[in-house]
Amino acid sequence: MTAQDKDPAAAARGAKLASDFTQSLHYDRRLYSEDIAGSIAHARMLGKQGIIDSDEAAKIIEGLQQIEQEISAGTFAWKPDLEDIHMNIESRLHEIIGETAGRLHTARSRNDQVATDTRLWVKKAAQDAANALRQVQEALLQQAQRHTESVLPGYTHLQRGQPVVFAHHLLAYFEMFDRDAGRFLAAKRAADVMPLGSGAMAGSPYPLDRESVAEELGFAAISANSMDAVSDRDFILYYLFAASVTMAHLSRLAEEFIIWSSDEFGFIRLSDEYTSGSSIMPQKRNPDFAELIRGKTGRVYGHLMALLTTVKGLPLTYNRDLQEDKEGLFDAADTVLPALSAAAGMISGMTINADRMRLAADRSYILATDIADYLVGKGVPFRQAYIAVSALAKQSIATGIGFGELTMEHFRSASSLFDDDVMQVTLDSAVAARDVPGGTAPGRVKEALQQAMKRLDAANSEM
Predict the structure, then answer these.
(1) In this structure, are residues 355 and 264 in contact, taking their beta carbons and an 8 Å threshold?
(2) Are 233 and 135 in a shared domain?
(3) Cα–Cα separations (whole angstroms), residue 223 to 112, 123, 198, 199
(4) Buried/exposed code over 340-352 (b: 16+ C-beta within 10 A; e: otherwise)
């Protein structure tokens, strides 16, 4: 006799612990719509195939539709002791239609059922993320259209490097988010394979029409191997990877917003909607939304690493470990979608201080490369030109003289090849000189902007 046998209270506590530890209802109830859709399609197929009576199939479908209405209306009585979404729905179906409810689970397992539910959910979530990314891209293009001539410092190592136009900088993020949308659509394609009909692991002995169920549920294909079908979670990894890279890009943008909106930079002003005040410092306008995007990035990374760690040691086929696939998935989606919405809002609502950007570029040594290129145009090897202009820059920094204040005497002390036309090297000439595809010359940027608009229009038409 065990200690729990002697102590009923301990036995009750143990039973409750077991129930609490294994139940997943508190999060997988989010799959109710997908679960019911899958069950309706399955029941309809069972009836058509003569596996169950067609009247029974109709009765099951009618009961499932009632359950969906109850859940949507908030009147459904969830029972945690029934462990998960599947058993809650099946139990309620039994209450509504009686013993016929037991026919529904013919020729399927919770293993292929939950895999089907989750794939349906990921397909929609991935498309939602891609759509949200298009909104961010739209906001970027709207700002870029206004600033194809606005010059600001381009940075490497957060040190002023070369002048660029602001639209060119924004279009860099357009490209990042375009790749992100592609990754989410790849996750959608990865999820677009129906596992239902795989049973617990070995397939089904019934004459199933899997293709008709896949067509009804909107799947592009059916799974080719029943063992892989019930144990595969690659499609969730695809989604989490896409979400992680997207959050990385959002975090980079957020970091720039935080820096640019500081008094030290003053390049942009974020709208009041996306900033907050201080509890003690009345003058403060804290970039809270940008900081939260940056801060939430780590939690999405964590969900990717958690699932990678979960699946790395699992033998075929289904293992209860896979119950851990959904909480991180749902939280990642609940994180990335609001982050994308906040980013689109910040971009659309921010005010650009183009004069401050240009002044920052002007009061620097940002034309050094262009001055070296000037000497290259006079026949000097670039490495020698680099050394000459480097010495000129060091002298200017030491004396506190900006490049815009240098005289011909200063230039000729660095190289006798400098002539009066070196004074024509300006911020505008520097950006105009980068007249190559992908460069920051205003003409090229305008072309890139037009192409980006066409690409976005094409992507939106495919939604």
Answers:
(1) no
(2) yes
(3) 10, 16, 8, 12
(4) bebbbbbbbebeb
Q: Does a structural domain hold residue 178?
A: yes
Whether omega for the bond prior to residue 118 falls within 30 degrees of 0, making it cis, is no
Residue 153 tokens read as 């410092």
245/171 same-domain check: yes
How far from the centroid of its chain's Cα atoms is residue 192's Cα?
19
Backbone angles phi, psi at 439, to 5 degrees: -90, 175
- Domain containing 79: what range? 14-106
157 is catalytic: yes
> How far apart, in whole angstroms, are the C-alpha atoms of residue 357 and residue 353?
6
Q: Of 54, 278, 390, 429, which is the active-site residue?
A: 278
In a shared domain, residues 179 and 259: yes
CB atoms within 10 A of CB 419: 12
How far is the C-alpha of 226 from the C-alpha of 229, rounded, in Å? 5
Would the pTM count as exceeding 0.85?
yes
Domain ends where: 79, 106, 133?
106
**In whole angstroms, what is the distance from residue 154 CA to residue 235 CA?**
38
Catalytic residue list contains 226:
no
User: pLDDT of 292-318, one tens digit each?
Assistant: 999 999 999 999 999 999 999 999 999
Residue 375 forms part of a structural domain: yes
- As a whole number of angstroms, the distance between CA 266 and CA 217 comes to 52
Per the structure, how many domains does the chain have? 3
For residue 93, the domain's CATH number is 1.10.275.10
Strands 351-352 and 151-156: unpaired
Residue whose entry in the numeric block shows the structure tokens 């080719």? 224
Average pLDDT (378-398) is: 91
The single residue of 157, 279, 416, 461 carrying the catalytic annotation is 157
Decide if 447 is inside a domain.
yes
- Give the residue among 67, 85, 91 at the shortest CA–CA distance from 27: 85
Give start and end residues of each alpha helix (H) in 160-269: 166-191, 210-217, 226-231, 234-260
Task: Give the tens place of pLDDT for each residue, 75-127.
Answer: 999 999 898 999 999 999 999 999 999 999 999 999 999 999 999 999 999 99
Whole-angstrom Cα distance, residue 345 to residue 338?
Answer: 10
Distance (Å, whole) CA 86 – CA 457: 41
User: Of 106, 130, 152, which marks where a domain is finished?
Assistant: 106
Domain-located, residue 280: yes
Query: Residue type for 150, please?
Result: S
